[in-house]
């Protein structure tokens, strides 16, 4: 039997390669019918429908976004990054990225950021790669959609890079750096990921080198937050996901993430209860 071509493989996988299918599906829909939509990724759409779709994806259910209002699709994508219990650039590396944002020489800044990205978990690298390539594509239609890179960076920056337990005053003080480094990554997306095959193929597992012979891998929270649904999608669509280090992250509903600790257990218990009822 002849081997499947690239397009056939992508169709068999539902377009989901190496990142959560919620992200892959939203990007595919916006590419198909939303790139020239005025205010795409700025207008949020239906909050109720976004929550409903979030829960469906979290439970591993297949969601057809074909007829969903395109701004609701955009809101679903933005909320995914906002609700991550540990942001895509991770709490652990917040200070390093803020420091990189202050580098004045563009070449030095680019090399520093590229090195920092290589220290992220594979899941986070793939997710970052997919979203910044996509956002840069959205910006190509700026004349039609009115979305400048600064606008896009202002929306995504605070969800990509945030500090754990950061008070409002500190957050506002460093917001300029958060937005500027996010915009820089959008502008330099090709250079930052020039050693990656393309966005349809996930990067192979690789070592993360810091200093002389030192190795470090920042743990990923993606698997444990979105893991159950991701595993179901992987099996259902035949997608191979790269390995990730384990990390204990409480199961929470999206609206409960980042709430006080005493509320965390309730979210996990509720989700388990829903899963049990679904099986019955």
UniProtKB/TrEMBL annotation:
The root-end lineage is:
Eukaryota, Amoebozoa, Discosea, Flabellinia, Dactylopodida
Q: Where is this region: Disordered?
A: 232-280
One matching Pfam family is RhoGAP
Q: Where is the composition biased (Basic and acidic residues)?
A: 252-262, 269-280
Q: Which residues form the Rho-GAP domain?
A: 6-193
One GO term under biological process is: signal transduction
The record's keywords, sorted A to Z, are: GTPase activation
**Gene Ontology molecular functions:** GTPase activator activity
Q: Which SMART domains match?
A: RhoGAP (SM00324)
- What protein is this chain from? Rho-GAP domain-containing protein
């Amino acid at each position: 039997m002849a081997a499947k071509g690239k397009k056939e493989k992508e169709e068999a996988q539902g377009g989901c390669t190496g990142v959560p299918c919620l992200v892959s599906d939203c990007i595919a829909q916006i590419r198909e019918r939303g790139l020239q939509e005025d205010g795409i990724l700025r207008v949020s759409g239906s909050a109720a429908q976004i929550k409903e779709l979030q829960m469906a994806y979290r439970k591993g259910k297949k969601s057809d976004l074909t007829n969903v209002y395109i701004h609701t699709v955009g809101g679903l994508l933005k909320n995914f990054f906002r609700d991550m219990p540990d942001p895509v650039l991770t709490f652990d590396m917040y200070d390093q990225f803020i420091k990189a944002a202050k580098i004045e020489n563009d070449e030095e800044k680019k090399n520093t950021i590229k090195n920092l990205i290589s220290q992220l978990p594979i899941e986070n690298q793939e997710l970052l790669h997919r979203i910044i390539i996509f956002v840069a594509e959205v910006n190509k239609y700026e004349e039609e959609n009115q979305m400048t890179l600064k606008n896009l960076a202002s929306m995504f920056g605070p969800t990509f890079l945030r500090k754990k337990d950061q008070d409002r005053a500190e957050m506002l003080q460093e917001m300029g750096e958060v937005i500027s480094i996010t915009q820089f990554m959008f502008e330099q997306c090709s250079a930052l990921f020039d050693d990656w095959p393309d966005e349809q193929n996930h990067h192979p597992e690789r070592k993360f080198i810091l200093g002389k012979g030192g190795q470090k891998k920042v743990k990923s929270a993606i698997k444990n937050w979105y893991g159950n649904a991701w595993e179901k999608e992987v099996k259902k669509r035949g997608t191979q996901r790269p390995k990730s280090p384990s990390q204990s992250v409480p199961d929470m509903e999206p609206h409960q993430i980042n709430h006080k600790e005493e509320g965390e257990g309730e979210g996990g218990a509720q989700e388990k209860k829903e899963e049990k009822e679904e099986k019955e």
